[in-house]
Amino acid sequence: MTRRPDPAGYTQPPSDHLGSPVDRRLLDELNERRQKALSGGGEQKAAKRHERGMWTARERLDALFDTGTFQESGLHVQHHSHEFGMESRDAPGDAVVTGIGLVEGRSVAAFSQDFTVVGGTLGKYHAAKITYLMHRCLELGMPLIAFNDSGGARIQEGVESLAGYGDVFFMNVELSGLVPQIAVITGPCAGGAAYSPALCDLVIMTRSNSYMFICGPEVIRAATGANVSMEDVGDPLVHAAVSGNAHFVAEDEADAVGLVKRLLSFLPPNNLVDPPHRLDQPIMMARDEEMLDLIPDRPNEAFDVRRVIHRLVDDGDFLEVHQMFAGSIVVGFARIGGVVVGVLANQPMVRAGTLDISSSEKGARFIRFCNAFSIPLVTLVDTPGFLPGIDQERGGIIRHGAKMLFAYSSATVPKITLIMRKSYGGAYLAMCSRDLGADAVYAWPTAEIAVMGAEQAVRILYHKELDAAEDQKALHAKLASEYRERFASPYQAASLGMINDVIDPAESRVKLAMALRTHLTKRVTRPPKKHGNIPL
Question: For the residues 93-110, what does the mean pLDDT come to?
């Protein structure tokens, strides 16, 4: 019998040489083992989770990945411990599901801890599966999504479980700045387990069922005698608004997965690839007359800077990060003229837009993340300075404020600054002035750039004249107006080359879009060194 040629060049063997069929018993055993592993802790435990509005480990991954693209690794792994009741206990996958797949067509790695299997606790092989996946992220250059839902270290494995956490933490640091790491906390994340999300770039917590802490209420009570609740130490809202450990609070797990996908839409897969810009779309050159209505006439009147951001960015699509924390500064991702950007803006609605300890940390962390992944920075300025007060000084505002200076100075991505109104003192520098490496600085005619506000300045400069004046209020107003015109005018800064141009607010979107497009080829060479020493 002659062989039939195959279009691809492969010559098929004669039909009488196809060989024996696979033993059906082997396939039956394979299917049985696979189904047992896929079932996790069983239907009853899954049903209990559903009653609480929670998903199973696999349901999270099914929601994240494009249908049929998830490739699991380590399905048949079992636990390492053989003592303290674990000898005959089944632990499918050693309580964690790991693998890679496609999310809206892009390669992504993810692991999902399975609380239905030995409480999702981390043992030797559980950690080995996670760190193997992290090594794959390193080699393949893909983001890591971590679904945290675990009772912590597996007591039965003793120091090996602690070593497993150490391996995970080490790889979190290895991946830092190389690929984006997003942690999603959907259940308990306690003790040492909380440090892995803390080492990730972005943290999402679900509003219900999730909590995160180092020492829980019982430990705190035993150590200090204080009676605290779980909500006091581990609640998502506490971490989002007070501690700043969580960047987002999702309504439920479906919302959390949606947030992950939206974040990925702005991020590159790794530090060697450009963000997903949309440079094929034309820049809209039309003026935006409505921008003129957003800024109050009085310089001290507050306004919501988010309204400005939504008019500047494409389709008003702005994903705010850390929305509940340090409200005097707003940060988040968007596109302007198709270019992915990280936006930082002072918020006059909160503490007049001053920079304090928390907002300085929030801003510096966001700047460094954007710089690591080649995301250009757009800075919108309206700040009277750093927040004064004894609590701020004793809390280290000098050190924390210096983080903003360090972050902007060390950033090599395109940096575009728009001064809307007040830009005083050290905060003028900290919000990415020309001196800190801004590539283009624009100012509205309403901008005031000075060491301090005109009112405060004339009180210092002319205190004798004011004390002797019959009408102090009228003289103060006159002197402040003269000071503002002579020393704080944006045209004064422009004449000294401190800013590129004074622009009509209606032209802001066009100016920023063009600046971003023309600066995407920016390349900066810095002196060789291990790393700088940011004032932590």
Answer: 95
CA distance 204 to 523: 33
Of the candidates 41, 101, 187, 191, the residue annotated as catalytic is 191
Q: Active-site residue 146, yes or no?
A: no
Q: Which of 141, 158, 177, 192 is catalytic?
A: 192
Say which residues have a Cβ less than 8 Å from residue 178's Cβ, sequence separation at least 6. 138, 141, 270, 271
The pTM of the full predicted model, rounded to 2 decimals, is 0.91
The string of pLDDT tens digits covering residues 193-238 is 899 999 999 999 999 999 998 888 888 888 888 888 888 888 999 9
Neighbours of 347 (CB within 10 A): 23
Active site residue 119: no
426 is a catalytic site residue: yes
Residue 15 pLDDT: 56
* 62 burial level (CB within 10 Å; 0-12, 13-18, 19+): middle
Catalytic residue among 127, 427, 488, 515: 427
Distance of CA 321 to the CA centre of its chain: 6
- Mark whether 192 is an active-site residue: yes
Which parts of 225-277 fold into alpha helices (H)?
A: 230-234, 236-238, 253-264
Q: Which of 177, 244, 426, 437 is catalytic?
A: 426
Q: What is the CA radius of gyration of the chain?
A: 28
Chain position carrying tokens 């830009």: 423
Rounded-to-integer distance, Cα 347 and Cα 108, Å:
35
Backbone φ and ψ of 295, nearest 5°: -100, 125
Tokens describing residue 1: 């019998």
Tens-digit pLDDT profile for residues 459-502: 887 777 777 777 777 777 777 777 777 777 888 888 888 899 99
Q: Which residue has the higher pLDDT, 90 or 83?
A: 90
